[in-house]
Each structure stands twice: as structure tokens, then as C-alpha cells.
Amino acid sequence: MSVPEECAKKLREISPAYEARAREEYIPIIRPESLKLLLDAAKRTKCYRILEIGTAIGFSTAWLATETGAIVDTVEKDEKRLERARAFWQEIGIENRINAYLGDADELVPMLAKENTYDFVFIDAAKSRYSDYLDAVYPSLAKSGIVFADNVYYLGLVKGDVYPPHKHRTIVTNMRAFLKKISDKEKFDTTIYDTEDGTAVCVKL
Ligand SMILES: C[S@@+](CC[C@H](N)C(=O)[O-])C[C@H]1O[C@@H](n2cnc3c(N)ncnc32)[C@H](O)[C@@H]1O
Prior knowledge:
Elements: H1 5-24, H2 32-44, E1 49-53, H3 59-68, E2 71-76, H4 79-92, E3 98-102, H5 105-115, E4 118-123, H6 130-137, E5 141-150, H7 169-182, E6 188-193, E7 199-204
Parallel strand pairs: 1-2, 1-4, 2-3, 4-5
Antiparallel strand pairs: 5-7, 6-7
This protein binds S-adenosylmethionine (SAM).
């Protein structure tokens, strides 16, 4: 079901200020080039249901819901951020297209994956958990469905096999495990874009 044009118009109108405010407040939301890749990828496949892991203040959620017309299930552990997200979606008029879940993705993602089939999964929460999120969602991802993961090069530390600094070791090690899984040619047709912090688009085979 497509989203009414007045909602899309409202999002285009209020999005720039909302995005600028998030950056001023250091709330990590998707960067412009990655957003473009996200929406291109989401529109490449017919999306009925999307799972977003990491809502923050609902910026990418709003774009996904509006541009695809899909129902979006989204997961966030920070209550204040989720409150802002809900107000943003309400202002646009798309709140009935989005199911927001407050809590830890480690628990919510396996639960949602058991209950639903997803055409598109946007992984954007804890960087050390991407590999686990992938394992949890894989069985519920439709054939030709897409996993889109942002920040897969994590500050440029993941590329190559350089031994990471102690502070980032877990994230880098786990992100490399994630990259190895999405490189499995029997399971995914994966493209990794060098854009910004590295973006992976994986089509389930
Ligand atoms: C990069 S932001 C999401 C940005 C959003 N997708 C966008 O582009 O507008 C990541 C969010 O994931 C949330 N997060 C991190 N770990 C989480 C967890 N274990 N469970 C649920 N949410 C988590 C953080 O609170 C943060 O708001």
C-alpha cells in the first residue's frame, strides 16, 4: 500500500531540519549517501515488511516507510529517542505504517524473526552484534530479500587484516565475522560500497 503523497511531501519538508538537529545533538543517523543507497536498495525489491534494527529518532524509518509503502518493524533500546521518533512519524502521518519496539535487539530481533517474514532488513544497531542479528534474521528473510548493513568498515578499522586497537577489538573482530558470512556465495549476492563508513547490500539467494 503506498503512502499518501501529502505524507511524502511533509517528510521532504521537515526532513532537512530534523536531520540537521540530529547531527547537532550527535545522534547517529544515516548519512546522505548511505540513505540514498538504502532507499535504492529497498525500492529494488518489492517490500511488504521491513525490519529495522536501530531506530534512533526514526529518521531512516520514516524514509523507508514513505518510499516503499511497506510496514516497518523497528527496534530501539533508548526510550527518549523512540518518543521523538513517534512524534516525528505522527507529524508526517505515517505512524500507522510503523511498529516500534522498545528494548534490546538481542531479544527483540529473534522474537520478531520468528513471527514474521521480511523482504528487507536494515541492520544499524550495536556494531558488535551484526553477525548475531544476521543469524537471527536469515531464516525469516524472503528469497531475494535484502540485508542492508551500515558502517561495516567501522571507522575504516575493519578493512584488511590489521590487528585492531584494544578499544575497538570486539567490534572489529565481530564485524569481520559478519563480512565473512555475507561473502558466502551460496547464501548471498553481496556488494560492499566504500561510501562513508562502508555499506553492505546483500541479496539472499
Ligand atoms: C545508528 S543509530 C540508528 C540510526 C537510524 N537507523 C537512522 O539512520 O536514522 C543506532 C541506534 O541503535 C540503538 N541500539 C544500539 N544497541 C542496541 C540494542 N542492543 N538494542 C536496541 N537498540 C540498540 C542505539 O540506541 C541507536 O539509537
